Structures are given as C-alpha cells and as structure tokens.
Amino acid sequence: MYSIQEVSKKTGLSTHTLRYYEKEGLISGVERTQGGFRQYSDEDMDALGLICCLKNTGMPLQEISRFVELTRQGDHTLQERVDMLGAHRENVITRMEEMQKHLDKVTWKLNFFTQKLKAYQAREAEESLEKNA
C-alpha cells in the first residue's frame, strides 16, 4: 500500500491531481486508513500508470474517463476499448510523425548555424592573428 505522497512521488502527479482523479472517477475504490488517509494499492498504481500514459500521449481526460468507465463495465465493452485505443494510437503516430518533421528542421537549422558559427570564429581568429602580427 502507498500513501498519497508516495504515489505523488512515483507518478509525478501532485496530490491535488490524485484527489481530482479520484473525485472524477478515474480511479476508484482507493482504500482509507482508520484515520482517513488514502492508501493506494498496486492495482491503483497500474490504473494511474495507464491514465498517465494516455494523458501524456494526448488523450483528453473526458476520453480517459470514458475508457475507465468502459473497463468497469466489463468484457462486453472490449470492442469499444480496442477501437478507442486503436484510434488513439493512430493519433499518437500522426503527432510523432509531425514532431519528427519539426525535429528534422530544427536539426538542419542547428547544423547550419553551427557551421556559420565555426566559419565566423575562424574569421575572427584569423583577423586577430593579423592584428597581432
């Protein structure tokens, strides 16, 4: 079992966000100590891992919530969940391809300006030698 602080540290989610996810039903059944403190199980951690994965890959919380609800409804929702994840995967691939194009352009510009900088520095060094000669 993990305290909310431990879960926050492990997931990178703030305690506020963890409470919000619980309030919104993204995670449910989080046990409490006799003193009322949350205790997260390994199953809760797995659920949070998936939620973070989906969120970090651009799935809106509303869709994540729908996915979680479908999971709770049982195996008769498997097709809808497969469809949701398939569509999300395609969106992620498209965004990755776009990001690769941007990265390629940034890399090209970095190489271009690095070469210009080297040429500039060489001219400066040459001019400095001429002044001192």
How is the biggest beta sheet arranged?
2 strands, antiparallel
DSSP summary, beta strand count: 2
Question: What number of domains?
Answer: 2
By CATH, the topology of the largest domain is: Multidrug-efflux Transporter Regulator, Chain: A, Domain 2
Give the name of the CATH architecture of the largest domain.
Orthogonal Bundle
The top-level CATH class of the largest domain is Mainly Alpha
Helix tally? Answer: 5
Relative helix content? over 70%
Q: Distance between termini?
A: 75 Å
Strand order of the largest sheet: 1-2
C-alpha Rg, in Å? Answer: 25 Å
- Average pLDDT: 93
| SS strand fraction | under 5%
Order of helices and strands: HHEEHHH
Instruction: Note poorly predicted spans.
Output: none
Name the structural class: mainly alpha
- Choose one word for the global shape: elongated
What's the short story on this structure?
By secondary structure, this protein is mainly α. 75% of the residues lie in helices and 3% in strands. The protein folds into two domains: 1-73, Multidrug-efflux Transporter Regulator, Chain: A, Domain 2; 78-133.
